[in-house]
């Protein structure tokens, strides 16, 4: 049997080689073996002081600028996907709203793509919930549960997963777009664009 038609696409990007939360990091005292944003005694203000997870979900750094500036889409190691004006305009014509993009104070050529609409995901593996903030330290193997409830291809627009995936402090949401939105991006010949088809199980 030929593979089923995709009903949605995950929108992915190559790493930008940068961190929205900055380059200052530290190791908490043993027996902990992870690393965190901030400096000893001064965890980054957007993170949980107990586990280091990002808890301020709207944080944008005042001085952040995109590294890979020839790209239309690029992603920080800590879960931010940044898009060019061309990519943003294409999304706005195909289902996105202005509220799906946050301006970068120091970089007017790019926007943080942070969709308002949420799709139901689960994680096949989640370990070590934090007693202070409730975030799971590891939350991996995304399962796009919303596909089971769709009657047809996902509508135009941009969406984010209900969970953040990865391991603290580098977790981030998955980004999903509708089939027609994905076609519009493909037609726009954008640099750095990666589309991963999602098919109904
Ligand atoms: Zn925590």
TrEMBL record:
Protein name, UniProt field: Uncharacterized protein
């Amino acid at each position: 049997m030929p593979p089923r038609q995709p009903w949605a696409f995950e929108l992915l990007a190559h790493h930008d080689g940068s961190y929205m939360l900055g380059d200052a990091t530290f190791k908490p005292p043993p027996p902990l073996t992870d690393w965190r944003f901030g400096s000893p005694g001064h965890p980054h203000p957007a993170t949980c002081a107990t586990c280091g997870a990002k808890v301020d979900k709207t944080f944008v750094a005042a001085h952040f600028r995109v590294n890979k500036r020839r790209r239309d889409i690029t992603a920080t190691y800590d879960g931010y996907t940044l898009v060019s004006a061309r990519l943003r305009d294409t999304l706005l014509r195909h289902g996105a709203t202005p509220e799906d993009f946050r301006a970068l104070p120091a970089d007017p050529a790019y926007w943080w793509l942070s969709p308002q609409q949420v799709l139901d995901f689960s994680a096949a593996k989640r370990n070590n919930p934090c007693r202070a903030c409730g975030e799971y330290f590891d939350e991996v193997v995304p399962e796009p549960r919303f596909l089971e409830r769709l009657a047809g291809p996902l509508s135009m627009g941009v969406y984010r997963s209900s969970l953040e995936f990865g391991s603290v402090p580098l977790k981030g949401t998955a980004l999903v777009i509708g089939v027609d939105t994905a076609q519009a991006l493909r037609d726009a010949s954008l640099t750095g664009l990666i589309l991963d088809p999602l098919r109904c199980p």
